[in-house]
Amino acid sequence: MNSQLAKNTKVLIVDDQALAKGYMKYSLEELGFGDITYVDKINLALTTIRNQRFDLIICSYNLRREQDGYYFYDEIKANGELPLSTAFVFISADTNSDLVQSIIELQPDDFLAKPFTVKELDRRLSRVLGRKQALKDIYLSIEVNKYDKALSQVELFLATPKNAEFFPIALKIKGEMLAASGQFQQAKEFYQAILKVQTFTWAQLGLVNSYLRLDEDEQAEKLVLRLAFKADHQLAAYDLLTALQIKQNDFDTALECVMMATEISPRSIRRHKTAMNLSRITHDYETQFEAAKKIVRFAKNSIHDKPENYLNVARAGIDYAMTTDASDTDKLIKQAKEYVRQFRQAFPKAEMDDQIQIINARLLYLDDEKTNALALLDQLDEGNWDNDSIDSLLDKAKIFHDLGLHERSQAMLEQIENRCKVGSEQGEIFLHYIHQEKEEKSNIKQSSKELNNSAVDYYQKGDVDNALEAFTKAFTLMPKNTSIALNLLQVISLKASKLGFSKTSKPLLKKCIKNIENSVLNEDQQERYHKIRITLDGV
Questions:
Q1: Which domain of life is it from (predicted)?
Q2: Measured between alpha carbons, how far is 361 from 366 in angstroms, rounded to an integer?
Q3: pLDDT tens by residue, 177-223
Q4: How far apart are CA 498 and CA 238, in angstroms?
Q5: Among 147, 258, 339, 424, which residue has the fewest nearby CB atoms (within 10 Å)?
Q6: Rounded distance, CA 420 to CA 418, Å?
Q7: What per-residue string of b and e applies to 94-125 under the rule 16 or more CB within 10 Å gives b?
Q8: Under 8 Å between Cβ of 85 and 139
Q9: Contact 1, 32 (CB under 8 A)
Q10: Closest by Cα among 158, 137, 159, 160 to 149
Q11: Which of 39, 46, 35 is nearest to 8 (CA)?
């Protein structure tokens, strides 16, 4: 270890084991490090790095008091609180598949398996800190968004033979700076030139991103699909595929991609949130409910554990109960109530009575107690709504609409939209969802529950035209509901047998058949579907 480099390095150790702390402190001091800060909790680590700058962070992957270093690293990286010039090293006594996958995904500067010798620590830290020191000026320019300057510095760095050891990482930075400065055509040509020499993963991923930026989507898809078949590249490939499908407004396929990514990396809260927002757009209420539950599960006792997580499960459970078959409603209501109970237990001091009241009003509506639901809404203090979360406001917009208070519902969605435009917390996917909600709730005044009931009533009275309109609206709100799909298909086939297919009925027909054939049908549904297909084949 370069003694001067060790002496000038400010170190933060995040570990909750006293013996580990003692050994690490001894080892670092043996190597010449003197400026060492030790913390044993992630919240303390966050506070510390927000008040001081460190050159090296050594973090235990497994922390007993909180959920481990995964969330700490993910949080500071996502929030821009980990400077590029700061080295981050994980240490762990475990080397299980979950940890290995996390290391592949998170890509810290290094990982050390316990137990390790002082000699091994010396070798690994010398390499990491040497790289950070060599590229420090470039990193500092990037940290203040001076990408053109960083690009010039990289070019100079690559022209200096003594830096040959660090050329691969410098080339990677060059590609990133070309993209960051908006030079996407140059970035594309650069990555293509690199790949002719060696197939670096970072160059392949950079090329995909360049294709996306240049609207060369077909090329991007071909390359990223090849990467998706390679284990080490799968997560990054699925993330890029998700971005590609979102760009093309193919939200169903985007949801499939992000769900495959969550199967590989189930602890990523960010991906579960993306899945929630995409499932809202696609009206996939079951997936929304499952994603909300996973956020609670994986965030529990970590820095991501928040009251809103539990309430979002209750809200998603109500959304699902509103749009599924009656046989599942009671079970979903019980689960929604259970998550409200868990919220009260986990956060007894949280003042969220208004939000609970909205959830209770929605539950009353589910039980056909509209008068009591309205009475609960009348008790709300409208003056506090500016302080409510986006999810709370959305819940209010939904109950207002269901109870027939359409102007108040639209006003609430307008308020949400304005807040999303001002702040970047929710992102473009959520904003797209709010646009969609505004349009749908403006055009479809009845709730999904009421629509289905009225459609069945029209059909039983022989009013095929109104039944078709009502079932079409119901299917718009509940495209994953097999019973609705069967009912709509039956009405379409009945009308087509007399008048033939209209232009609007054909796309609906395909969607209904896709829903039904991707579902598990009971005996009665199979018999109904068989009869409907005979009628359709006849037409």
A1: Bacteria
A2: 9
A3: 999 999 999 999 999 999 999 989 899 999 999 999 999 999 999 99
A4: 47
A5: 424
A6: 5
A7: eeeeebebbbbbbebbbbbebeeeeeebbebb
A8: yes
A9: yes
A10: 137
A11: 35
Residues paired with residue 90 on neighbouring β-strands, in sequence order? 59, 111
What type of residue is 184? F
Omega of the bond leading into 307 within 30 degrees of 0 (cis)? no
262 neighbors 272 (Cβ within 8 angstroms): yes
Do 90 and 129 meet the contact criterion of CB atoms below 8 Å apart?
A: no
Q: List for the chain the helix, strand, coil content (%; round to 5).
A: 70, 5, 25
Tokens representing 367 are 């039980």
Residues forming beta bridges with residue 113, ordered by sequence position = 92
In this prediction the pTM is 0.87
Q: What is the pLDDT of residues 475-532, one digit of tens each?
A: 999 998 888 899 888 888 888 777 666 767 788 888 999 989 988 888 888 988 898 8
Cα separation, 262 vs 290, whole angstroms: 12
Specify the pLDDT at position 533: 85
SS3 301: coil
- Residue pair 516/493 in contact (Cβ under 8 Å)? The answer is no
Strand-pair partners of 38: 13
**CA distance from start to end of the chain:** 82
Cα torsion 440, 446, 451, 457: sign: negative
Asked if residues 12 and 24 have their Cβ atoms less than 8 Å apart, the reply is no
Among 12-21, 345-354, 468-477, 521-530, name the one with the lowest average pLDDT: 12-21
Structure tokens at 520: 């598990």
- Count of C-beta atoms within a 10 Å radius of residue 257: 25
Between CA 341 and CA 310 the distance in angstroms is 9
Residue 292's CB is within 10 A of a number of other CB atoms, namely 27
Distance separating alpha carbons of residues 8 and 33, to the nearest angstrom: 8
